[in-house]
Write a structure and sequence with these properties.
The protein has one domain. 31% of the residues lie in helices and 13% in strands. The chain contains 2 helices and 2 strands, in the order E-H-E-H. The protein has helices at 20-31, 43-49; strands at residues 11-14, 36-39. The longest helix has 12 residues, at 20-31. The chain is globular and about 35 Å long.
């Protein structure tokens, strides 16, 4: 969590497949003092279903 402290005042959008895990992560960030945290409701599943663009994952991490 310390590595994220420099972003406490920035907008943070948390995303997962269905929105459930990202909601828990967003709640944790708010409890830790992050100011502008948002969760992508219903996650990437609904994003993709609605036809929004999705980039393939990078092969190198």
């Amino acid at each position: 969590m310390d590595a994220l402290n420099e972003y406490k005042d920035d907008e943070i959008i948390v995303v997962c497949h269905s929105g459930a895990r990202s909601m828990m992560a967003a709640q944790l960030l708010v409890r830790e003092g992050f100011k502008d945290v948002r969760n992508l409701t219903c996650g990437m599943m609904i994003w993709h279903r609605n036809g929004y663009p999705v980039l393939p994952p990078k092969k190198e991490y």
